[in-house]
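As the next step, I wrote out a protein sequence along with its fold in token form, included below for the reader:
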Amino acid sequence: MAIIKLKKGFDLRLEGQIGDGAQPERAAAGAAIGIVPDDFEGIVPRMDVRPGDTVLAGQVLYHDKTHEAIKVTSPVAGTVKDVCRGERRKILAVVIEPDGKQAGEVTFDVKHPIKELLLESGLWVMLRQRPYDVVPNPDVTPRDIFVTAFDSAPLAVNRNSLSADEQQLAEVAVKALSTLTPGKVYIGISPSQDINVSGAVINTFDGPHPAGNAGVQIANVKPVNKGETVWTLSLDTLLRIGTLLSTGRVDYNVTVAVAGPMVAEPKLVSTTIGASIDSVLAGNIKAGAEPRLIAGNVLSGVKVELDGYIRAPYTQLSVIAENNDPDEFMGWAALSPKRFSIYRLFTSWLAGLRSKPTNLDARIKGGERAIVRLDEYDDMLPMDIYAEFLIKAIIARNIERMEELGIYEVAPEDFALAEFADTSKLELQRIVRDGLTWLRGEME
């Protein structure tokens, strides 16, 4: 077991953190379950069902246009209520009305090869690959596989250890995944976790956020070079793979951390992937300012509405204020002793407010401007790349320069903290995603 110390980054502490030892509460069944294709980057969906069709849990909803073996399955048994479409008939969501009995599910033959099982069950879309941060190409063999066992993002809640059953599931999954790569299966944990899975290489990452990001862990263990491919997955996905291999069924349950400054009672909620936001939130919002609902963490999550759904990759529902002080004197330029700043621009750091829970809202507090060379990006990204120069190369669409600066190693989430700290107020995650999508189109 290796211990890797990271100094770069920053732990953003927000009010509304869930207390230690909290036990999940089961959410009331919602009226609908929604699967959002945008959650599975790199897939162009082709529908296998229509509104009105009856489906079982684990039945295919749609497949990828390019690689038809890649499938997305239903998390519940019920009726397809709607296939929501946007501009140019883009599929925005597949909405399923549960039958209420949760009866009927597809059982998979565990004797089939592991890759075939993952593809047929829909668990394949829970994996990601570097480069490009997309659902893996099933025709490419990964150099290594990386499992992230903790999330260092604001308001995240992690397992301190695995139960006996979870330990067994994890070992079954690691053994199976090891057959898909000539390299190793790595599991990244935090210093507070006591997790040791037989067959995997365990690395402890000691440092601030984004220490829990897959890209950061890969870069500090075995970076991705041009022509190489690695896969990444979360601990939850690893356990789902173990369940599939042990029982022949897919576990679609998910524990969501409902937290943030606008949450009346921060808590863990047990529900189903794709559950409606209102069924999970259940009115658990403080009165006052207008809330912003975020599927995921406040740095890299996705803005959702109350009638939206728990997005598949996320295990958090963060709630902050849209604007909790619209009439603030001098706005972002106010020299308040209570104002938060990473860079100690205000006297609040003398009182230690940078390390205490704070109540931030959704305001940008500034305008977009040219990149100023202050090493801000590098300070927030513990990877051996020149982040500011990489962003400029992406904007310029300079392929050679992008490759030299490490484009194949990064994902948008790796730049989320840098985007929060950025004096220039640039949408770094969007820039990186657009660059990766464009580069993938050029190279493939």
